Amino acid sequence: MLSKVSTKELMDTVVKGGYCSGCGVCTASEGSVLKMGLTSNGNFEPYKSSSAASETHVVCPFANHDFNEDNISKKLFSNVDQIMREKEIGHFRSIYAGFVKEGDYRQKGSSGGGVSWLCAQLFNERKVDFIIHVKQSDNDKSDVFYEYDISSNLLELQEGAKSRYYPITLEKVLERIRNYPGKYAIVGVPCFIKGIQLLRFSEEVFKERIVHTVSIFCGHLKTTHYMDVLLNQFGVPKQELIKFDFRHKIPNRSASDYGTSILTTSNEKKVKLNKSLFGTNWGLNLFKLKACDYCDDVIGETADISFGDAWLPQYLDDAKGTNVIVVRNQYLDELIKKGVEEQTLFVEELSKEDLIKSQAGGFRHRREGLRHRLFLQDKNNEWRPQKRYSAQKLADEKRARIYENRIKMQEVSFSSKNHEDLSALKKELEPFIAINSKLNKVSLTKRIWNKIKRTFNWGQ
Prior knowledge:
The protein is an alpha+beta fold.
């Protein structure tokens, strides 16, 4: 039986400690008095909507429940035909790399177009009535630019293509699921999907109505300040913004060498290379939720299917993008194979080793780095979530300093009030970025050797 946590415990540990990812599943638990609100730091957190003395109990992906990702995925997938399991990546039935060949799914998607294509097939096969995914907000009075919404047809589905590096919450759509019968599929990052599964285990209404879960591989979640800083560098006020694209594909460049684009009210489109914009180096931890430093799920181990970017040498030259796909659900695996047979998809099998290589930085940060961060929290006698990996001080002093410096950069940017003043923000972060550059400096000889290995796929 899944144990919930009291509202008081949640607020005193997860929220107070800064471990909330803003998913909003705590608001959906039966009888919950919690609501989600956007903080001055640009992230969502729950707050009590009632002063009632009675305590309610809720689920949360960062609370210390009996169920972690291993327990959840075992319960969901251990009986799936041809299922396998590896410690690093959890359960899997198939692992692929590929892209959509039909229509403009690939062109409109951040990577290979796989997520939108799969959701379209669920509509076409009448397996779901609704898809829950992130779209641009159509509410002019809203404080947020993106939010979770519900699509009930293919036309609405197209509005949810592309990645949005922006805080969002499931609060409103989960209320819709509780109140309106139907078959739903949800697209989300790993911690959101974990929260959904906990909700499904705890209440029959969510178990019956949420019939498929789709996860996006996740580096980390950003605050609203990330978008503000990027927009600042375009010199465009937010009130003049019509569209914002975090993953603008640029022809004849590496798939990882993408840009950021905006469309203004004057119908002017502007594009800048990401590497020319301050703040886009994800290894610096800027505008990153603290919760993400205490998550050990890179690929969405509790979802029916997961999609990520194929950051591997054999796929990087294709600027149109290629997905890595991890399938745990038998029906969805058969759907992909059907797409291959009908020549609407191109996929090839990928080894589990290549899957890990494709997300090497993420796995390193959430395995090696996580152990060290847990050690630091325990050393300071501070509460932190229980994880599948034990606390351990890093013996490699240089690597330890890299992770500790990332924490400092995250803290400065997360709470900084300078996100609208780029020069002030840079000045505040400058000493930490300098330390990061020094610690990560690679010798010329090693850079040449790494380039040779990538060119000839040695060691791949």
